[in-house]
Amino acid sequence: MTDPLDIPAPDNTGTVTLRRYTYQEKVAARYVLAMLGEGSGVRHVTCEHIEDVLVATDHPTDRSNVLSDFLQVKTKDDPAPWGLSDIIAKGALKSLWRTYRAVQNHGLTYLLTAAVEGFLDPADDALTALARGAGADHPKCLARVSKHLKAQEADVSSFLSFVRVRTMPRREHIDDQGLASLAELAPAVSVGEQRAVYLEILNRVHDAMQGEAGAGWKEKLGVESPSEALLRKRLTPSSVYDLGQRLRRPDHVLLAAYSERIDAVETNLVRKLRRGGASEGTIHDAQFLRSEADGRRLSDVALGVWPEDSRVEQDLDTRLRITATRIARRYQDQGHRPADRIWDDLTQEINSAAGVLDLRPLYAKDPWLLMGRACSVSDECHFGWGVATGEN
Q1: DSSP H stretches of helix in 124-190
Q2: What percentage of the chain reaches a pLDDT higher than 70?
Q3: Alpha helices for 48-166 (secondary structure H)
Q4: Which of 159, 202, 260, 326 has the most crowded Cβ, counting Cβ within 10 A?
Q5: Kind plus residue range of the DSSP H or E element containing 250
Q6: Would you tell me how many other CB atoms lie within 10 Å of the CB of residue 372?
Q7: pTM higher than the cut 0.70
Q8: Are 148 and 213 in contact (CB under 8 A)?
Q9: Domain ranges of the chain
Q10: Neighbours of 227 (CB within 10 A)
């Protein structure tokens, strides 16, 4: 079975002009949201390849097959309903026609959809026919589209059998609808957490629009093949599996959850902090956050959402170690209880760079959990907290 990623895109300028398409990102996010629910049938969402958004779903009658829906997203500032003249003027049909000619001989089961912001004019019968896939059966619609495309009616008739028009929420409502969907998916999760997940979905869609979804090491080393570059535009259920767990699990990142795990055992971490002259408050915070991070990791391992590839975890630890070592170096010759100052500087650095450090993310880019992970790295003797030479 042919995958649309195997078909060269007739126009690949969309990735370059990403900044124009904040609404387009939110349309793509609606389908990514659907992947978080059960029974949606959405298999994957690909951004900026052949069309603005490509949504692959289960075929409605043949579950062994895939239905590829190519979406050309169009907006307009005027809230008045869309007519066929608007669809033509916006160039949606020309784009879908180009897509039709690119994919028609590749064995796909597909639709070509103009996804428009707002509502359709119910009095425009030509557009009504086009919207439901019957544009070829409406003489006026067929004639106008053929003239617009400068093509023979016989060719356009076949094209229109694949065309649909689908309405999308207005820009002022689309976020509210996305958040409402999350509220239905996870009613027990706080509104703040629902919003955080929605923003993370938009962030991942944004990356996919730029062809930057997933790890970038192959591209940076210059060993990436074109197919892998295109796969960076695709979001699958595994791409958002961790977000689904955030919505379903009852114990998400509550900093009191593992406080009872702090005990009086003097670990390497505590000894290093004491050597650096750390205050008792800093030592307690370090023990507490370390136990929080360890608890989060153990919980994710038990849920099966911790990555099996050990390099992901190693990458985070390396980033934390380099960051902490650089900060500790500032105080190596200053003495006078440097541990507290190293702690404060490291806390500030992790807070400002959480997204860069926690790329996967393993700890939801939470600065406090990342501080806890840094304490675990220190406990494994990868960096210290300075050496106190005297009292302040």
Answers
A1: 125-131, 139-149, 153-160, 174-185
A2: 84
A3: 84-89, 92-103, 125-131, 139-149, 153-160
A4: 159
A5: none
A6: 26
A7: no
A8: no
A9: 4-245, 253-379
A10: 10
